[in-house]
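#struct-pred
JK: can someone run the complex with glutaryl-coenzyme A? inputs below
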Amino acid sequence: MDFELSEELIAVRDLARDFAAKEIAPTAATDDREHKFRADLIRKMGELGFYGAAIPEERGGSGLGFLALTLITEEIARVHSAIRVFVNMQVGPAMVLDRFGTDAQRKRWLGPLVAGEKIGCFAITEADAGSDVAAMRTTATRDGNDYVFNGSKIWISNAPVADCGLVYAVTDKGKKHRGISAFIADFTRPGLSRRALDALGTHASPLGELTFDGFRVPAENLIGHEGEGFKICMWQLNNTRLSCAAGALGVATASKEAAVGYCNQREQFGQKIGQFQMNQDLIAQMIVHEEAARLLVYRAAWLADQKRPNNLEVSIAKYTSAEAAAFAAAALRILGAYGYSTEFPVERYLRDAKSYQIVEGSSNIQKLIIAQDALGYRKANRE
Ligand code: GRA
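RT: done, structure tokens with the ligand placed:
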């Protein structure tokens, strides 16, 4: 067993760290406060090759792998969690096209997504289909050479700004999850309306609703075959879930760093507040949760790089890191009024941390996957 990162991976991590410090950190607070959409950052991260880490070289990526992508995501989230969402929105559709797309689909969409030239997204969730993906109702009905979409997707990251999206819809109602199909859709075509939504945190990541009303998607944009959408979706979620786990890890680290820094600086009752055991207790727990999460997240990424099934390990990693982030953001307590104040970043960490217990399968869904695998009810790892 080798716990050392290779020189190549250290270089990737340092590149992302440097980028986050120079390009993201200076405006993170105002981007969050003003709900600012930083299209320039999407482009710059594309130019640096961040989205292509887990895409093979012959398809426009760097082929560095999932661990590289994990380190990139972690470093960005450590500085501003909302900006790491951009990575997932480019990488999610790109990876699905790499794995399941046709050459023509890859040519048209994969390259621009990896380069950050087209803004991507993926649309699974609906008002009545959150954890229960199979309950989705948006329909895609074949009409000549097109599929006609009707229905609505909600809580979709990048919905207000995406040029294209990976959209899951029902092509055969009677077949339940086996009647779901996956499409890559051009969002500049008529029949799509968008509504921006706001949330507690992740403010610099545009969020919204997509409503399809007679929205036409050419049949050549169907990914795989009709009815394969649910399996493609589960495959996709396994990868984008790992990306969220890495993001949560970054937030956990940022929160811990803020708590340690403050404890070493703030004095009360004639001594540094780090001397108080109640604060030491919180810091020790933060570090233990963060380090456990880091090992689990890296293991899940390493398994992906070995081309081994890792759904169970991704769920364990995502659960642990989401909870670690939420716990560490309790650093706010250590910082007292400075933690609660909107003039300091810790309240942003807390708001952003909460998202990780919800997105890409809530913490309860991860527990369900983990426990049902152990009990023999539902196998987590698939080929
Ligand atoms: O036998 P079969 O042909 O019927 O197939 C079944 C099974 O073998 C069928 O799907 C197959 N399957 C899989 N195939 C390949 C299941 N899992 C996999 C897999 N991993 N790979 C039905 O299976 P099932 O177990 O009966 O499914 P279910 O009970 O309906 O659902 C399972 C589950 C609860 C795990 C699933 O629905 C799920 O993951 N729900 C959580 C939804 C979620 O994660 N949503 C995320 C939304 S996107 C988002 O949050 C964006 C965030 C962006 C950001 O912050 O970056």
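RT: quick notes.
The longest strand covers residues 146-157.
Residues 288 and 308 are 27 Å apart (CA to CA).
JK: thanks, will look after standup
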